[in-house]
């Protein structure tokens, strides 16, 4: 039977988080105040002179210590001061250059600190590039291609009132970057540096935790406490070991392959030999939990557009044989190019890039204008000539000619030569239609919408959805790009449709099919997408965590630190919220009605208890009392779904279930709003009510506890097998051999082994 409901609350501890299949097009945010190009902002750093001297000493160049500094940002329209911020050197080779690069951290001394939505700034000196323009040009082109890449602009940097030169301000890739592009940032983010070749090392995901120097090659930047590389290991396994006959389908299930084809096009246009394809270096992988797929994010693009350190002519290199030769296998490039269909799609994207996206004359004109705007700042830059002896004449010449050494081409002459070379090499682009960004949304228990982006070479396209309900038969429906079928705007290549009259408690499976004017057909995904059944009357929801005094932990969408309540759906189907109510007084169960939305399987949503319903549909009409009260979740008809009574609360410490759906509640010094209550949050509480169990492992009838505790004992299935009140021993005579968990009333957990 398809729909299985788990009613034993403790088994919910072991529920695996379900990620809905689907994805959406990455968001490309506006430049914003920090990255505007219509001015040349000035950044002022004030730092203790002795500290600055220490940073520049040879023995300290590799230090990652962030020192306190004052930060001022002035772009002519705004002038803001932030004090303190973290300040340190950054980069690899640039640490040893005369013109160094810097990192500014707004969250170093202020928890959750941000400036215009970013936690860190990368101020890159670009000491290799006499034009101080190449990486900026690359980032701007990537944005035009809708690739989720960092924002950037030129800035002037002063330290202790001394001019340190012209820099490129590049957006830092972190949780904030990920959330702004993909909507969620709860997945694993890996920074991949040499020798990150993505070759298969074995089935054990821990094998990919190997070090190179003082860092991991695949360096996990999020979810560090879990330190779980399963997603990366699975991706690399499929990438390397899936058979050629199903490679595109298999890889497409775990990787955003079509956006990566655009990245390949850009890398090969740029001559980015220091990226993945040639140098197995300088990229990020993000596990997008909304789609279940890895996303490829390029970074560090200063060695591009005619800069060379390895003796290759990147302007004329074969676009279908671009990797490093010899024993240097690059599976993510070489297997993609070896697949005929994917190769044709890559050719199409490259064709589109050089013939449509880039207008070389327009690009040269806009870059020339910027060159003239920054020229005086380059002339005054005291560090500009120190590494390679560059002059202002070299700055101007670097756009039209090579300067010798590592500068083989001028920026403009490289682009002219490279684009001409690409056009002469491009093969036929008679590709099958491309389908990407497939997603769905349940409007109600009986209505589901579907969307997808469709790319075809030979218009027009005919797009349809093939679906079945409860596994019975297949039905075809048309999808449209007219702005009237949940498809966004007319003629934007986003197609949509709606399926109605779905019976209650029924699931849907679907695939999308596209045919073009030449008769070529594509169908994706390779296996139908499952939309779980919507929730019935007996669906379970939990009040999972809350904070009754929030001063610094999390802001709402308006920038306010409001009280909040987290609702968790443990079911394997979506549950409608529209017939549910929240209250801070259980005698008034219908105090505030939840919005007409669905909560997905294993999803966590935040309700802001701010008594300000005008701020949005997830803002309740009551606040929480720090001194203690009650929170109730009810269904229409005063049917209790969940409730909690609590005592006095500590500011910025949340109160939540020890694990999601667990009946035991504890205080969290490290709150997890909108995310799973992980066991790492126990560290704070261990010290509050620490105890030991002895002997452990045990084999007799009795184990002792080091203090009197009130406890519950759980087996490996999450079931309660024993309880005790104010005891200093546990009678284990009736326990079977195995592993148990003892949880005290404060939430402290101890493993107990019975031999």
Quick overview of this protein structure:
The protein has 755 residues and is α+β, with helices and mostly antiparallel strands.
Task: Give the helices and strands, then pairings.
Elements: E1 42-46, H1 49-56, E2 67-74, E3 79-90, E4 101-105, E5 120-124, H2 134-144, E6 152-159, E7 162-171, H3 175-182, E8 189-192, E9 211-212, E10 215-216, E11 218-220, H4 230-241, H5 247-254, H6 257-270, H7 276-279, E12 283-288, E13 293-298, H8 331-338, H9 340-357, H10 360-379, H11 392-397, H12 411-425, E14 434-444, E15 447-455, E16 462-469, E17 472-478, E18 494-499, E19 508-515, E20 521-531, E21 542-547, E22 563-568, E23 575-576, E24 580-583, E25 592-593, E26 598-599, E27 604-609, E28 630-635, E29 639-645, E30 654-657, E31 665-668, H13 683-686, E32 693-694, E33 702-714, E34 720-731, E35 738-744, E36 749-754
Parallel strand pairs: 1-6
Antiparallel strand pairs: 1-2, 2-3, 3-4, 4-5, 5-7, 6-7, 8-11, 8-12, 9-10, 12-13, 14-15, 15-18, 16-17, 16-19, 19-20, 21-22, 21-30, 22-27, 23-26, 24-25, 24-28, 28-29, 30-31, 32-33, 33-34, 33-35, 35-36
Helix pairs in contact: 4-5, 6-9
